[in-house]
Amino acid sequence: MLSVNEKAYNIVKEMIANKEELNIDVIKLENGATVLDCGVNVPGSWEAGKLFTKICLGGLAEVSISPSPYESIVLPYVKVKTSHPAISTLGSQKAGWVVKVGKYFAMGSGPARALAKKPKKTYEEIGYEDNYNKAVLCLEASKLPNEEVAEYVAKECGVEVEDVYLLVAPTASLVGAIQISGRVVENGTYKMLEVLEFDVKKVVYASGLAPIAPIVGDDFTMMGVTNDMVLYGGVTQYYIKSDENDNIESLAKSLPSVASKDYGKPFLEVFKAADYDFYKIDKSMFAPAVVVVNDITKGKIYKSGKVNVDIIKKSIGLIEL
Predict the structure, then answer these.
(1) CA-to-CA distance for 292 and 272, rounded, in angstroms?
(2) Is CB count within 10 Å lower at the N or C end of the chain?
(3) Taking the domains of the chain in order of start, what are their residue ranges?
């Protein structure tokens, strides 16, 4: 079976070898674990953002950056395509591991989740496991982890601490903005599984693109802006091998963010209205703006949702001169 940690580790080695070119730093902790700083005390780079995103996806996706395909949106875009949608997005990329050790807190995503089975239910539903002897974890945080964090990750993953690799990028950084927009495909597979209860193993190919947020504030502000890039600007395509009882037209109609009752305002406004409680926000909102679904069994294709340029401009505070 494919090992997302093995594929990611090969990319990590590439990043370490090219750290100066990538504008990243590599820190060896006293216990032997390795930390890759991709934006905390260093600037990072476009290429580091691509590689960080690819590692999040377990090395099972192609990631590229391009100018905007839309004249009305003046931001660069990240593009993702994968032939292993369930494993790459839910089995690896999903931010399903809350790393809390002492005073350190970070959202963990990437291949190491498959070793620690965070959360276990996800791996049962997609039928995937990984048994590689190295753990690669991506952390969305504004501080670098210490030896205690690395020891915790090693224990949860069942590997030696010297075989732990922790990549870190703050939300308010270029690499952070790229990797969050790079979750555009995962937003759709997550909603299929968690909200619509659809068997994501039937999704055989997927692709997507989303604008990359400019750096317009601190981590809290950027949390809202980066979410808006996917919710109001993300465009995805899913190729599904359906069964005769699957209603793919209904799935496509329910999948984009516009289907949510909370749709229509920048994410920070929605968050404020929910008393800053994620659990009060309609889970249906966490989805791409536009969804195209190809039912390859029945030879049909459906499109639903819309790109909302006005909200994207409002979210980033665009000043048009």
Answers:
(1) 31
(2) C
(3) 4-316
The reply to whether the predicted model has a pTM over 0.90 is yes
What is the C-alpha separation between 58 and 132, in angstroms, rounded?
Answer: 12
Measure the CA–CA gap between 259 and 282, rounded to whole angstroms.
10
Q: List Cα–Cα distances, 293 to 209, 237, 250, 254, in angstroms.
A: 15, 6, 11, 11
pLDDT digits (tens, 9 = 90+) for 112-170: 999 999 999 999 999 999 999 999 999 999 999 999 999 999 999 999 999 999 999 99
Pair 74, 110: CB distance under 8 Å:
no
Say if CB 157 and CB 133 are below 8 A apart. Answer: no
CATH fold for the domain made of 4-316 = 3.30.1030
> Which residue has tokens 């690499």?
175
Residues forming beta bridges with residue 79, ordered by sequence position: 64, 209
